[in-house]
Amino acid sequence: MKKILSLVVAAVMLLGIVSIAAADVPNAEKPVIWYNRQPSNSTTGELDMDALNFNGKTYYVGFDAKQGAELQGQMVVDYLKAHGEGLDRNGDGIIGYVLCIGDIGHNDSIARTRGARKALGTAVPDASQGKTEIATIDDVDSAPIGTNLDGSATDVKDGEIEIDGKTYIVRELASQEMKSSVGATWDAPTAGNAIGTWSGSFGDQIDVVVSNNDGMGMAVFNGWAKENKVPTFGYDANSDAVAAIADGYCGTISQNADVQAYLTLRTMRNALDDADIMTGISTPDAAGNVLSDDLYYYDEATRCFYALNGAVTADNYEAFLDATAPNAKFNFQLTEEQAPTKKVWLSVYNASDNFLNATYVPQLQNYDKILNLNVEYVKGDGQTESNLTDRLGNPGEYDGFAINMVKTDNAASYMVKLQ
Ligand code: BGC
Ligand code: CA
Q1: Are 413 and 389 in contact (CB under 8 A)?
Q2: Which of 186, 235, 409 to mutate to test the pocket of ligand 1 (most atoms within 8 A of CB)?
Q3: Of 332, 353, 367, residue with least CA distance to 406
Q4: pLDDT at 6 (0 to 100)
Q5: 85, 177, 283, 412: least CB-packed within 10 angstroms?
Q6: Alpha-carbon distance values, 69 to 104, 338, 388 (Å)
Q7: Taking Cα atoms as reference points, which of 137, 131, 126 lies closest to residue 69?
Q8: Which atom of ligand 1 is nearest to the CA of 236?
Q9: Cα(79)–Cα(82) distance, integer angstroms
Q10: What is the pLDDT of residues 196-206, one digit of tens each?
């Protein structure tokens, strides 16, 4: 009897703690995990340290944009070098490519444009940043050029590549930010329209398609490149893109969404529990979840976690076919005692973004379960920040916030709600 009583008391206390928590903790002291869109100036890329230091329980989770961008560029060059025959479709001695740009103000997109141009030899120094030479991809001009059939554009130059002993000119024939008429970025239908226009006016000059992500890359592939057998490269390793490698999509980059989704909710869990932030990350948690250190790194000074990227090509794609599968190394259920259920508000900037909805959110849903986080997924329209912030009307209801902004400059509009 005594035992039962004490169990009941314990349960009541536990419930008490759970229900007191959200209402009693000031919102400004609750965990804030920024993810996928790093708080930063969309023009200069400079990190928004006010947002990253919002409180002692604030972190960013993303991936190494630069390492991934260099990998994507290298993947394209490796392919060109290995498939010389027939690449120059119209035999004019020029390898012409078109580039789909996601969002000119998003650091991931900027890095990928730079990485592709640097690897293909078409990069010029970014004069808008005062650069006069290119030491790293950070120095590369990332502006869209419109069309450049004659090679006269000033934000890129003609490059050169030697394939099977023959030197070709490499030319960026066209590039454009794929922004819909209402303002949604990384917009796949816009990329589908663009390839329609481009192929209609200079289709036989296009030998390669490079895209800042798979959503846009697959729109181009399905709309034109597949039928015309034009090598197409994307980024994200969404399941549909990986499956398309069997049908001629040439390659993509995995940004290890499993690691990022886990880190997003793991840092949340640790912050909620006042646990060491590396619990279940560099050291195993009570259930045995742990990340090996080749998967990520942490920059303590800026409170940012970055997953690393890997190339996915015809050589290895079979292992990546299910982008939504949880990682067996960190998929162990925590008990309610180890990690009492907490309520989390989580935004996704755009309900139509391919990567976030097809890959990242399903991964979050793997890990919210094992970490006992009751997550409310709030999806925006990809254009207006207020569409999301308006739905953060009652932050007192939640124990923590995981935020994917529409625009990387807009962190303050969330912080205001939590003051
Ligand atoms: C992904 C894109 C996605 C964007 C959204 C990037 O990291 O690669 O596919 O559209 O994030 O913020
Ligand atoms: Ca050509």
Answers
A1: yes
A2: 186
A3: 353
A4: 52
A5: 85
A6: 15, 39, 29
A7: 137
A8: 8
A9: 5
A10: 999 999 999 99
Regarding pTM above 0.90, the answer is yes
User: What is the Cα–Cα distance from 39 to 56, expressed in whole angstroms?
Assistant: 16
Amino acid sitting at position 145 = I
Neighbours of 194 (CB within 10 A): 22
User: Which phi and psi (to 5°) does residue 351 adopt?
Assistant: -65, -15
Do 102 and 216 form a contact (C-beta atoms < 8 A)?
A: yes
State the distance from the centre of ligand 1 to the C-alpha of 8, rounded, in angstroms: 48
Q: Is the pLDDT of residue 85 over 60?
A: yes
Ligand 1: which residue has its CA nearest to atom 3?
A: 355
Q: What number does the ligand 1 atom closest to the CA of 185 have?
A: 10
Which ligand is closest to the CA of 64, given by its number?
A: 1
Backbone φ and ψ of 345, nearest 5°: -95, 125
At 241, the amino acid letter reads: A
User: How many H-runs (helices) and E-runs (strands) does the chain carry?
Assistant: 12, 15
Q: DSSP secondary-structure letter at 350?
A: B
The 58-63 sheet, strands edge to edge: 296-299, 304-307, 58-63, 32-35, 400-403, 342-348, 373-379
Would you give the distance in Å from CA 338 to the centre of its chain?
Answer: 31
Residue 177 has pLDDT above 70, yes or no: yes
The pLDDT tens digits of the residues spanning 114-133 come to: 999 999 999 999 999 999 99
Ligand 1 pocket (Cβ < 6 Å) reads: 36-37, 102, 108, 186, 213, 215, 235-236, 353, 355-356
Task: Tell me what the pLDDT averaged over the chain comes to.
Answer: 95
Give the other-Cβ count within 10 Å of 128's Cβ.
12
pLDDT of residue 5: 46
Contact 35, 344 (CB under 8 A): no
Query: Using CB atoms within 10 A of its CB, is residue 290 exposed (0-12), middle (13-18) or buried (19+)?
Result: middle
Decide: 403 and 52 in contact? Cβ < 8 Å: no
Residue with tokens 């890997």: 310
Rounded CA-CA distance 277/274 in Å is: 8
| C-alpha–C-alpha distance, residues 224 and 245, integer Å | 15
- As given in the structure block, the two tokens for residue 295 are 């998967």
- pLDDT at 45 (0 to 100): 87
What the block records as the tokens of 28 is 């400004």
The phi-psi region of residue 333 (left if phi > 0; otherwise alpha if psi is between -120 and 50; otherwise beta) is beta
